[in-house]
Every structure is written in C-alpha cells, then in structure tokens.
DNA sequence: GTCTATATCGGGATAGAC
DNA sequence: GTCTATCCCGATATAGAC
C-alpha cells in the first residue's frame, strides 16, 4: 500500500521532493525549490511536514517498506534461499522503478548519516541483514558460490544505484541477470530458478 | 603523479574535504567544517581555492586522472580486451583505495549535475566510454558473455561505490571477482586472465 | 598565507491574515 | 491549507591588517 497514510497534497510534495533530491541531492534542494516545482509557496510545505528532514525520512520509509515486508514474508516460505533472493530482488527493483518516488539514490544519500536519521539507517541495516541471511542460506544449500555474505549483500545492494543513474538507466532484469550470474555456483540454473521464484506465494 | 600540482597546504585541504564530502555530502559540508578539520580559519581556504566548487572539481580530476590514463594506455596494448579490463579495474580500484582522497562516492555526488561541473561530468562520461569499449571488444573476442556493453559498463562502475560505504568496505579483489564472474562467458578462466592482466606492461 | 571583521545572500522555519 | 511577511541563522566569499 504506497503512501496511503499521506494526503494527496503531501504525496505531491513527496513525489516532487524525491525527484529533486535524486537529481540535485538532498542538501542542494531547498524547500523553495520543492514548493516551486509543486506550484505553491514555500511555507505551504510546512502544513504537511514539520521539517524538511521529515520529507527525506518519509521517502526512505516509503522506499524500504515493501522490500522489507517482502523479505520478511519470504523468510517463512519453504523454498531454496536462492529462489527467495531472486524473487525479493525482482520485487524490490520493480517497486523502486514503479514508484512515483525516485528512491534508489535517496537510500544512499550521505545526509542519512546524521543522528536525525538513525531510525532510517536502522531500516537500511535491517534490509542488509535480511539479504545477508538469504545469501548465507544459499551458500549452505550450495546454490551460492563461495563469497562473504556481507560482501555479497553489499554488492547486490549497490547495483540498485544503476537504476538511478542519469540518462538511460539499467533495467531490473539486467541487474538481476548480472547479480545472479555473479552469485550462483551454476548460472545455467538461472532460468529454472527464475521460474520457481515467479511461482513463490507472496501475501 | 598524484596532486603534484598542489601545494602541501592545498593537499591537506583536498584530503580533508574529500573525507568530509564522502561522509556528509558536498552541500552538507561547509567551508567552515573543512577549515576546522584542517585547523585553520575559514577564509584561509580561499588562498588555495577561489571557490568551494573548485575543491570538488579538483577532487574529481584527481580521482579520474589515473583510471583515464590507464585505460588510454591499455588501448594500444596488444592483448585480449578482457585481460585489459581486468588490469584496468584492479588499477582503478587500488588507486581509489590508496588515495588519501576518499573519492569513490565523490564521483557520484549529485551536485556534479550542475552546469559548473560540465567538464568533470565529461571526464566521467569518457571513462564510461572507455570501459564500454573494452566490454564491446571482449564480446567480439568471445570472452564476455552476451550483455549490453553500456549496461555492463554501468554495472561495473556502480560497484566502485561498494568501496565507499560506511563501516567495512568491500575490497578490490572481491569487487573484481564479482564483476568478472558476472561478465565472463567462462569464469573458470579468471585465474589465468588475472595472471595475464598482471603481466601487462603499463607505462 | 593566515588572521579578524564583515558583506551579502539564501535557507529553514514561524506568525498571522484570509 | 495557502498566502504574505518576516525572523534568524549559517553559508560563501571579500577586505584589509599583520
């Protein structure tokens, strides 16, 4: 359920801010820039968000809610970890792509290192742990080739940024193909794995 | 020759600014922050750099000079493109790692989209072309598996960011291993390819 | 080449009318 | 819930003494 808690006006602000943050960076985007792009005066923003930081925090939550929820629900599904990882990656990339909020680069913005965003960083770290766990499990099951699971998770997650680049972005299938060719012991299993991933039940 | 054109004082500013930019972001780092970390007063910066933007521009050039030069000199070496790409990747990752200037994340900072940094963006695009060319050639030679060369280049380049992450970063060998396993038709050739890459002559 | 002092501007945020 | 007007602060950059 995307942003159901936000009013239409707040959603417009979020969408507009996300685009500006992604292109120019968080600190380089002023609340006046956001307001102008939305078509209102600058103080109007503050009827929807108490502070500029709250806009960024909301965007991070919007971007991570689904990837976190998908990973959590896959945890209790009986299936090879490599299959679950594939499904998770596809869902997450597609979520970020479909989202009217341009989120991929927002999740790596350095401003998140500030204390104010400790809660948002915790969400990112939780997601890293979930991905790390899937890779660890895939290693035990023999599908994933020898790799430090933390390293593997980091490398998979940095690939998300390829969708956020200027000009023509890399598509989710291309990222999935690259990631799984790098991760699997036997990449020839990829089509079969892809098929199994598509049939996984997701609430 | 790293930063030979800069005075020792200017180098201290560059090193310090690079670290702060990488952690907090360019716009979120003030010239006062830089000066305080260097141990001088804020206006002292301006005896070495006419503007804050010039510091960022200098860092981008410092980070790209070597990768660009290595790629250019490899162009005229007679060797398989996959071997040259391997050597280029190792040199470039090591350069960024060894550099007292923390550069990986600086090369993707959104502020570079501003007109002021058109020249610096051009350098990045040139590097993307060089990598794309190596992948295209590797494809023709049969070493690289079917992939859009532009996509491949983008994915290889985003992996650089894995070295810049907070906490424990991913090491160059891990990135090389991941990238080439994803790129090669036959990853079992990787050790041999690595050996050949190490013996390539570099001026 | 570094200092103090300062000019100037833009940014985040609030007050209060409508 | 949006507007105008405004406050206050921090940021970049300059001037001029040492």
TrEMBL record, chains A, B:
Keyword check for DNA-binding: yes
The HTH tetR-type domain, residue ranges: 7-67
Record InterPro entries: DNA-bd_HTH_TetR-type_CS, Homeodomain-like_sf, HTH-type_TetR-like_transc_reg, HTH_TetR, Tet_transcr_reg_TetR-rel_C_sf
UniProt DNA-binding region: 30-49
Keywords, ordered alphabetically: DNA-binding, Transcription, Transcription regulation
Xref: PROSITE patterns: HTH_TETR_1, HTH_TETR_2
GO molecular function: DNA-binding transcription factor activity; transcription cis-regulatory region binding
Listed name of the protein: AcrR family transcriptional regulator
């Amino acid at each position: 359920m995307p942003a159901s808690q936000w009013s239409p006006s707040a959603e417009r602000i979020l969408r507009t801010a996300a685009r500006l943050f992604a292109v120019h960076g968080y600190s380089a985007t002023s609340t006046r820039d956001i307001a102008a792009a939305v078509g209102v005066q600058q103080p109007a923003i503050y009827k929807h968000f108490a502070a500029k930081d709250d806009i960024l925090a909301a965007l991070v939550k919007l971007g991570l809610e689904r990837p976190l929820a998908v990973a959590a629900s896959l945890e209790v599904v009986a299936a090879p970890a490599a299959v679950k990882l594939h499904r998770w990656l596809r869902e997450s990339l597609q979520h970020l792509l479909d989202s009217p909020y341009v989120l991929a680069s927002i999740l790596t913005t350095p401003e998140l290192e500030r204390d104010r965003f400790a809660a948002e960083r915790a969400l990112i770290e939780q997601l890293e742990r979930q991905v790390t766990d899937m890779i660890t499990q895939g290693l035990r099951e023999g599908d994933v080739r020898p790799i430090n699971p933390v390293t593997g998770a980091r490398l998979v997650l940095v690939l998300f940024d390829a969708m956020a680049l200027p000009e023509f972005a890399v598509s989710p299938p291309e990222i999935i193909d690259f990631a799984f060719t790098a991760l699997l012991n036997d990449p020839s299993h990829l089509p079969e794995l892809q098929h199994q991933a598509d049939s996984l039940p997701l609430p």
